[in-house]
Amino acid sequence: MEQGESKKTVRTLGLSSFFNDLGSDMINPVWPLFLTRVLGANMAVVGFIDGLGEALVSLSQALSGYLSDRFRKRKLFIWLGYSFPIVARAGYALATSWQSVIPFKVLDRAGKIRGAPRDAMIADVSTHANRGTHFGYRKMMDHLGAVCGILACLALFNFLGYRNLFLIAALPSLAAAGLVIFFIREKPAKRAVYEGFSLRLIDRNFTLLLAMSSVFALGAFSYSFLLIYAQKAGFAVTTIPVLYLIFTVAASVSALPFGKLSDRIGRKPVLAISFFLWIAVCTGLIFFQTTAIISLAFVLYGFHKASLDTVQTTFASELCPVKYRASSLGALQMIIGLCALPASLIAGMLWDRINIAAPFYFSLALTLVAVVLLLLIDDRACNDGVRS
Hints:
Layout: H1 3-27, H2 31-38, H3 43-71, H4 75-94, H5 98-110, H6 115-124, H7 131-183, H8 204-219, H9 223-232, H10 240-265, H11 267-287, H12 291-319, H13 325-353, H14 358-376
Helix pairs in contact: 1-7, 3-5, 3-6, 3-13, 4-5, 4-6, 4-7, 6-13, 7-10, 7-12, 8-12, 8-13, 8-14, 10-11, 10-12, 11-12, 11-14, 13-14
């Protein structure tokens, strides 16, 4: 693919991510309140609906990655992934009971089928010299959309209410789907026999990356724990959303620089930086409970998420077999997603049964194991394959 067309593809996918996250984060801040106050759901139901959504994310990423490689198509899955939330958000606005929300929640989260094919497309049109930059740009637009979505929710909710806000939130996803349809050009793939993705096709280095990602994910509990920690440390409830906004802004402004840095100094050093940023967050919260340190922890957490999400995907796309890039990226995201549930369950048990610092100690131990696994990966095995 020509350089100009490659840049157009990356820019379009970045803008699509921006618009979709704008719509998502117009809803996310008030979603639990809608379920409980308007539809009468209890907290067990809220947990069930959100847990079901996260499970579907993991499975849909793996399935769409496999199908994208199987049929040698990317654009169709990306377009469907941005189209599903349009219908889902309109469905939320019309829901009359928490039971009627479930199929729309399933459809909304199934929109994540775009993830692996989209990331594979970015990797396909990139080279080793700019792949980190391209993934950093995409993540930057992701987080920037989230920032704008949160601000839009705060500005519009009192005027629109829940249902009208949900209807408005469908429009950014409509824009995202339109961008993919009209501005993404996918070259017809050459006919080839698809042999099927198998673990036998991945080498030692990609296996180590999967192991590293799994170990770290088991200790990387939900950001909700950080928010609750801040509240227990003395932050007023009304300031907690500001901490979430600080984290999101920090992730937005740092994703592209971290991607560019990985192009200059390599993927492993930036992943190591990401892990040490998380170590700094955990250490700071274990030993200090001051307003300044907790605020700084949310900034460092944003830097950590930006560097990890950007470079982990970049590294995986270069260590996996090019022919099975979407399948491999889908498998990585599925593994991380499946580890997310036990990670938060373990953290919650440690929090309740030992003390508030216990989840951070546990996460520190697993992070150090992940660092050791990272050191064992040979980054000279990175390929620069471009899909034909």
